[in-house]
Hints:
Helices cover 31% and strands 25% of the residues. With 214 residues, the chain is an alpha+beta fold. The chain has a 4-stranded mixed sheet, with no helix packed on it. Strand 7 (146-150) and strand 8 (153-156) form a beta hairpin. The protein is globular.
Amino acid sequence: MQVLLAIDLAPIVAPGVLMFEDVRVLERDDRMDPAIAETEARVRAAADLNEDIGQVRTMYKRLGIDPTKVRPSSEALLRRVRKGEPLPRINSIVDICNWCSLETQLPFGLYDLDRIEGENVTLRVGMDGEGYEGIRKDRVNVEGRITLADGSGPFGNPTSDSARTMVTLDATRVMFVLYCPREHVTHSLEKAMNLTAHRMLEYTTAREAQRVML
Length: 214
C-alpha cells in the first residue's frame, strides 16, 4: 500500500503512517486498564498539552475550518476525559489508537487495510460534495477538509472516520494515520509513532509491516 500526500497539503500536514499485519483484535484487553487509567489521570492534570492542541487547531484553520465547530478527534477525546469520563472502549486495536491519540494530542485515523480499495491512498483536500457514512453517526462531510481517499473515494479524516474502513474484530491488517501539523513534526510525530508501535507490540500479536513519514 502506497500513501501519497497532495502537494497543496504538504505545507500544512505531515502524516505518519504505520501498517501492521497478523493482527488479532480482541473485544477488550483488560491488561490495558491500569495504564489507560493512569494516562487519563495524567492528562486531566496536565497544562502542557495546550501547545499541542493549538498546533492541531492551526492545521484546521489554515484550511478555513473552525476547530471549535469541527473538532479534531484528539481534542474531542481530551475534552471527554477532562470532564471525568473514561476513554471509550471499542476493541483492543481501537482502544490503543484512542489511548495514543489522547496522550500525544495528535488526531489518529485507524483503518482496516482489507477494506481499502486499490493500491494507493491519497491524503488530499476533499472535493465538492464529498463525504461518507461515519462510524455511529450520519454522513461526514469532507468538502474542503483534510481527507484520505482510495479507489472508492474518501474514507477518513482527522475528525471522524468512515464505517466502510473501520476496524472490527475481523480485521487482520490495519493502518494507523497520524495527522501531524507540519510545524509540529519534529516535536511530535516520531515520538507518537514509536509509542503506537510499542503498544501494538506489547498488547497484540501484530507485526509492523510498514512505516512512512511524509
